[in-house]
User: Which sequence fits this backbone?
């Protein structure tokens, strides 16, 4: 298969819609009907966590625990080195997942079952994947639906470091007639 060919059933995250002669508008994200329970999205590219990411985000979030920002203190912990703040890991993994999950979302509805299952260190490269686990039309918002995904943050060696479930509100592709 040619590298520029896609498998049957592939989903386009981006398209250009013609809006005039020689003029196109970008459209990003998946619609409600594109989410199939059981589908897994591998989010790419990966992201290597830097010292600046960890220190800046830790301080912006007012997480000044010395395990995240003090190398001498961190050497004395069971990890023996600076531990990347879970807020940094959560932000990077969450950000990586947005283009292929909620680029067309109306609102984020929340996160459930957040688990931090392995430490992350400066220099670790993170990847993410999300599985569609539930979707339904909204009971209270006609023309809208709720999609829930389970997202995993993975280190380059495949070890899971973070997992959570996230639900978001999205417009139905075809609004049912009243």
Assistant:
């Amino acid at each position: 298969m040619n590298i520029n060919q896609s498998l049957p059933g592939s989903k386009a995250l981006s398209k250009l819609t013609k809006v005039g002669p020689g003029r196109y508008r970008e459209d990003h994200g998946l619609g409600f009907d594109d989410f199939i329970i059981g589908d897994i999205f591998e989010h790419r590219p990966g992201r290597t966590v830097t010292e600046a990411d960890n220190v800046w985000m830790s301080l912006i979030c007012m997480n000044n625990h010395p395990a995240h920002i003090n190398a001498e203190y961190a050497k004395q912990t069971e990890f023996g080195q600076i531990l990347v703040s879970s807020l940094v890991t959560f932000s990077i993994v969450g950000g990586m997942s947005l283009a292929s999950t909620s680029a067309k979302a109306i609102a984020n509805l929340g996160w459930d079952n957040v688990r931090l299952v392995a430490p992350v260190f400066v220099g670790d490269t993170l990847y993410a994947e999300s599985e569609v686990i539930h979707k339904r039309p909204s009971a209270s918002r006609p023309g809208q639906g709720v999609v829930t995904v389970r997202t995993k943050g993975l280190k380059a060696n495949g070890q899971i470091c973070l997992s959570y479930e996230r639900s978001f509100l999205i417009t139905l592709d075809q609004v049912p007639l009243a």
In short: The chain has a mean pLDDT of 91. Residues 33 and 53 are 36 Å apart (CA to CA).
